[in-house]
Amino acid sequence: FKQVGVTSQKTMKLLPASGRKATQKVVVGDQDGVITCFGIKKGEAVPVFKTLPGQKIARLELGGALNTPQEKIFVATGSEVRGFTKRGKQFLSFETNLTESIRAMYVLHISGADLFLCASYIYNHYCDCKDQHYYLSGDKINDVLCLPVEKVNCITPILACQDRVLRVLQGSDLLYEVEVSGPPTVLALNNGNGGDSGEEIVFGTSDGKVGLIQITGSNPVHKWEIGNEKKRGGILCIDSFDILGDGVKELLIGRDDGVLEVYNFESADDPVLRYDHALLESIASIQGGCVGKDGYDEILAATYSGWLTGLTTEPIHREGGSGEELKLSQEMQSKISSLRNELEHLQMKVLQEREKYQQSSQSSTAVSSVPAFSVNDKFTLNKDDASYSLILEVQTAIDNVLVQSDVPIDLLDVDKNSAVVSFSSCDSEPNSNFLLATYRCQANTTRLELKIRSIEGQYGTLQAYVTPRIQPKTCQVRQYQIKPLSLHQRTHSIDHDRPMNTLMLKGQFSFAEIHSWVVFCLPEVPEKTPAGETITFYFQNTFLGTQLESTYRKGEGFFKSDNISTISILKDVLSKEATKRKINLNISYDINEESVRYTLKLIHPKLEYQQLLAKKVHLIDALKELQVHEGNVDFLLPKYRSILEEADQLLEEYKKQPAHLERLYGMITDLFIDKFKFKGTNVKTKVPLLLEILDGCDQDGLIAFFEAA
C-alpha cells in the first residue's frame, strides 16, 4: 500500500502502539537515506515524518530504556549511527571509528545506550558512544544479536558469520563457535524475547534453512531445524508474532524469492508451516502487528524495491443475509476504485512526461542523462545439485539479460523462470566466448533466476548484462568468477579415514600470497588474510562428494584430497599463479593408488543412475507408439509399463540435467589421465577404450582397466 526507495535487509519496524489507539505506526529506511514514518487511516497512508536523503540506510532498529516502550529509532548509514524520536526529531549523530560501512546493528539499553555494530569482518560494542569491545572475525559478519540482559544477566553478543558459524562473544573474546548447516544471514530472539530462559535464538541461512539454538554459558543446544525441501529462497528476515490469535507467537519468515511463511507450534517441539504467500520480489523486512485497522492484526512485509505490503486478518467479504451473495465490504470497494483512479492518473502523467522527453530530445542542446538503477544480485553454489544459482533483482521491470561466459558452462532449467531464452553462436577461436544467451523477460518481471553448472579445472568469468525497461536504454554489467575448483563448498569437517593424495608446496612466498592463491582457486574463502600464522580449510565437492583439506602458512602449503583430479588442478593453477609473480615453487606430491579406486566407487552409482535414466528416456517414444497401435499396454513387462507411467517425470528430470552423463564421463576421463600424469605417462590414446568400458557400465571392469593401464 506504499512505496519508498529500494530497501536493505532489516530496515522496517513497527513502533509500539501509543495511548488509547491500538494501531501502530510504520518506520522504514531506504537506500536513498530517507526514513519514512507513517500510519494508516481508512486504508490510506498518513505521513508522520520523513527525513532528507543521505547515505544508504543499511539497518534500522528500535531502542528505549529497559521496561519502557522501545520507540527510539536508530539507523546505520555509512559508518554513522543516527537516532530519532518517534516524532522525527534527531537526538543522536554518532560517527564511529569504523573504516568500512556498517552492515549489521543491534541496540540495547542497559545503563546507557549500547550499540553493537559490525562492518564486514569487525565487531564493535559501544556504550553511550564510547568504545567498549572489539573483535575481528574469521569471515564476513552478516548479522549481530545480543541475548536479553534482564534474563541472562550478562552481555552475550552473537555474530552470524558467512563461514557457517555463529560466534558467541564475551567482551572482546570468543566464548565458543556454533556450527550451523548453511551460511547464516539473519538472527532473531525466539518469541522476540529469547524464550523463557532468554537464551534461545532463531537463525536463517542463505540456502533457506531455519533453526533454533539455545546459547548457554558453556555450550550450544540445537533444538530444531527446518530444512528446505521445497527449494525455496534464502532467509532474509524473521519475526515472532501471534497472528493466529491462539496465545502462542508464530514464526514469520521472509525469503529472497518473495515467499512469506507463517510457522506455528502445534506441538511444543517443531514448528509446522501453516500459511505461505508469494510476493513478486525478495522480502527485506517482516513485522507482525496492528497497522491498518484496530482489532485486526496483520503481517507487514517490505520488499526490495520498497513496496510495503500488508496481509490482514480482517475478513474482506461481508456476510450477507440468507440467500444473498457475499459482497466486498463498502470500504474495500471504495479503496479499489480510488486505486484505479490513481493508476489512471499516473498512466496519464507518464505519457505526458514521455512526450515532453521525446520533444526535448529533438533539440540540439538536449543532453540525455543515464538513469541510475539498483541491481541486487546473488551468485551461490547449491549443495543439492552442484549448480550455481544466479539471482538478479532490479528495482524496475527487466527487459532482457544477456549472459556471456568465456568458460564452458551448462545452463540448467529453472521452473520459476518465465523468460524466453535464445542462444547465439560463438567463435571457435581460443579466448573467445563459450556461451552467449539472451533472456527476454515478460512485462513486470523484476526478478530473474538462472542456474548454471561449471566444469572443474576450467576457470574464467561469467558476465550478466542487465537491461531494464527504462528510457533511455541503459545497461549494467555484473561479473562473477568461475573458480578452478568451482564445485567445492566449505564444510566444518572431513573424513580423515579416506585414502588421500597430498600436494606439498614450498617457496619464498608470504602468508598473504598463498592465501590469495587459495582465494583464486576455491569458492567461499574469505578474501581477508586470516589472523595468526597458519590456517586450515575443509571443502567438499558438491558433485562427487570427494573432499579437500588445505593447510598453509608462510613458505609452505599442504593440500590433501581423495580425488587425484583435484590435486592435479591445484598443482597446475598454483604453479601458474606463482610463475606470474616470479616466485620459484618447490612442488612435491604423494599419490595414493587406493584413492583412485575409492573415487571411482563414489562416481559409479551416479553414472549407473544417469545411464539408466538416459536409456529409459530413449525408450519413451517407442513405447508410446506401441501404446497407440495396440490400444493398451497390458502385454508389456512391468518395467516398461512403469517407464510409460513415469514418462513425464523422467523427461522432466532428464531435461533438468543436460550433459550430466557427459560430465561424469569427463570426470572419469580426467581421473584416468591425471592418475598417469603424476607417473609421467601420457595415456590419451587409451581414452576411446575407456569410453567403451564406460558405456558397458561395469564397475569392476572399470577399476580393472584403470589398474591394468
Automatic annotation (TrEMBL):
InterPro entries per record: Bardet-Biedl_syndrome_7_prot, BBS7_GAE_dom, BBS7_hairpin, BBS7_pf_dom, Beta-prop_BBS7, WD40_repeat_dom_sf
BBS7 platform domain segment(s): 488-590
Residue ranges constituting the BBS7 beta-propeller domain according to the UniProt record: 12-313
UniProt keyword annotations, A-Z: Coiled coil
Coiled coil regions in record: 329-356
Domain annotation BBS7 helical hairpin: ranges: 593-706
Domain BBS7 GAE: 371-480
UniProt GO cellular component terms: axoneme; BBSome; ciliary basal body; membrane; neuron projection
GO biological process annotation, one example: non-motile cilium assembly
Domain of life: Eukaryota
Keyword Coiled coil: yes
Protein known as: Bardet-Biedl syndrome 7 protein
Organism: Struthio camelus australis
